[in-house]
Amino acid sequence: MSDKKLIYQVNKLMKENKELTEQISKLTKNKDKLTKKIEKMENFLAALPPDLIPKGVKTKIGQKKLRFKMATIMFIDMIGFKKISEGQNTQDVIDELDQMIFEFNKIAKKYKLQKIKTIGDTYMCAGGVPVKNSTNPLDVVLATLEMSDYANTLAKEYASKGREFWDLRIGINTGVVKAQASGKKRISYDLKGETVNTATRMASSADTGRINISANTYVLVAEYFVCKMHGRLPVKYEGLIEMYHVKKLKPAYSVNRKIGLFPNDVFQVKYALRQFSDLQETILDKLEKELPEYLYYHNYKHTIDVVNQAELIGYGEGVSDEAILLLKTAALFHDAGHVVQYKNHEYYGTEMVRDMLPKYNYTQKQIDIICETIMATQLPPQPKTLLQRIICDSDLDYLGRADFIPVSNTLFDEFLYLNIITDLNFWNKMQVKFLTGHSYFTSTANNLRDVNKEKQIERIKELIVWNTYEEREEFYVEVKAIAEKNKKAKL
Hints:
Blueprint: H1 3-46, E1 65-79, H2 81-85, H3 90-110, E2 114-119, E3 122-127, H4 136-160, E4 167-182, E5 188-192, H5 194-204, E6 211-214, H6 215-221, E7 225-235, E8 239-249, H7 265-290, H8 300-316, H9 321-333, H10 345-356, H11 364-375, H12 386-395, H13 404-417, H14 424-437, H15 443-461, H16 469-490
Parallel strand pairs: 4-6
Antiparallel strand pairs: 1-3, 1-4, 2-3, 4-5, 6-8, 7-8
Helix pairs in contact: 3-4, 7-9, 8-9, 8-12, 9-11, 9-12, 10-11, 14-15, 14-16
């Protein structure tokens, strides 16, 4: 075999190997996505009563074995039944215990925790079960602080009457949890695994009346709560793990700086920013499933891009954390209305906002600002507020990026399918005019993208085919006039 043929064969094999590697990578990613979707659906179905599950839907409900990558377990050991019952009617003591558990259940419901089981004088609930979320460590600690405060208030009341009260030892741990659901009309959950075992050991190692959390939980909540190291606990296969007592919310995040029980508005914004990842996952799943396939540009990838750029430009413009939250949320929904229809999709996106965001504890004022910000992305953009200027720049950020050509090609393919544009040469001319007349509204976007945008104009000009010299000159005169008008507008 000649050297040329050998080189040809090697190059061919290398190309085939590269293509196969890319296919394997793509298939692996698709498999991971499908696995996550299946797991999410099975968890959702397991939380439904069987009579609400549509007929013909095949599930593993008979087994109802679930797995949660991050759940937070709270275990409370209520000590003192024998001591309290001495000299008292046993039934009265049991009624008092039931009343306390009733209040605990109310608090758990408030923070969307799942009650697991109550056996005698122990109480357990979990965050992130059965609905997965990224805020469950915060939810559990906040709920536990309220439960502890309620128990302390009752203890003082009983002490004033010369009566004994329950001593509580509380343990919290975060980690992977296996669950088994059971029941028909009312689903209950039995949690198992080292995460649960460690939570119970956290409770048994806690000082009376203290909330003892593991290092796993500590790293997720330490930013917001006053914590003090309590010691180390030997755990099988893990060695010594650190324990911390949670005392209260940090003053910066508490309505009452001294008590540190209830979170203030600053905390709520921080919480919402963490919760945003759950909202984003929900919306991106919806876009991936429901957007028409011909939306080559206005797809979920574009949404992710605009969310990221809104955050980048927002911080560049020095806006507050709350403004970042509103910007990212507006960016997430700004094209979501395409699942309804192409025309007026901005309006349909605001309808989705008004329907969904109250469930995520956004205020009415925040929702109104988000909707106004979304509507500002309608072409031609005419933003009135800083947030509107930022999202408009985020939406068209690609105009000044190195990937402008491939991104704009996806928009051309979309327009071609919809018969909005049918000629590539006409499209390139239109792009030159649009870029020439476009200006970013924020100094951050101008600093980041404006220079590159000028380069894009020159690149597209080279792609245009001219029938006559006169046609070319006429076009350049028109473009020059657009540039002059844009320059005056900037001044």
